[in-house]
Design brief:
- Pfam families: GrpB.
- It contains seven helices and five strands.
- It is α+β, with helices and mostly antiparallel strands and about 200 residues long.
- α4 packs across α5 and α5 crosses α6.
Length: about 200
């Protein structure tokens, strides 16, 4: 096994390469599905990591040791990559089901609980409108969070895949009627890049 996967928790190894789907009958929307919005993809903005640093400090101060990990993920976390102007942040907590441990503190910062997906890694998402932030809550060693980190770091060191993904994003936004549609349109490229990442880590899919 490639030594590179030493950064992947052993308990998560057998789940990293499996893209799980939640229960299709589960309604994830806490306050109803939001209206469709125009998909806007902008050139990379050097202010995104600066903004993340401020946001992460606020989150850390609000949650204290209940925040096991706070990480900048998604396209705004990759130098030079075009992105929707939304900062994606992963926060790991001991148990996402215990919403009282983190939701009130995040509410006080201006975040609102938008998505609750018990069937998909116990995922919660809280949104902030100004600045635009999607804050994703997962539990320890969550495979989805680990994939986020692997993908972010791979694009940061593989310019050919960064360019390929950038092109896929620009093509996907054309005619996309929703964020879900936009994500589906670029999914084939994303999955192919993941296969390269898994191979480099000595993981089989």
């Amino acid at each position: 096994m490639n030594n590179q996967n030493k950064n992947v928790p052993v308990r998560a190894l057998d789940r990293i390469t499996t893209f799980e789907d939640g229960d299709p009958n589960e309604n994830p929307w806490v306050a109803g599905e939001p209206k469709a919005e125009l998909i806007e993809v902008q050139d990379y903005d050097a202010n995104w990591p600066v903004l993340y640093q401020r946001l992460s400090q606020e989150i850390q101060a609000a949650l204290g040791n209940k925040a096991l990990t706070i990480a900048h993920v998604g396209s705004t976390a990759v130098l030079g990559l075009p992105a929707k102007p939304v900062i994606d942040i992963d926060v790991l907590v001991a148990d996402p089901e215990q919403e009282e441990d983190y939701v009130p503190a995040l509410n006080a910062l201006g975040y609102e609980l938008s998505i609750r997906e018990r069937s998909w890694y116990q995922h919660r998402m809280l949104r902030q409108e100004e600045p635009r932030v999607n804050l994703h809550v997962f539990g320890p060693d969550c495979p989805e969070h680990i994939r986020h980190i692997l993908f972010r770091d791979w694009l940061g060191t593989h310019p050919e895949d960064l360019q390929r993904y950038a092109q896929a994003k620009m093509q996907a936004k054309e005619g996309a009627g929703s964020v879900r549609d936009y994500n589906q349109r670029k999914q084939a490229v994303v999955r192919n890049i993941y296969q390269k990442i898994f191979a480099s880590q000595g993981l089989s899919s």
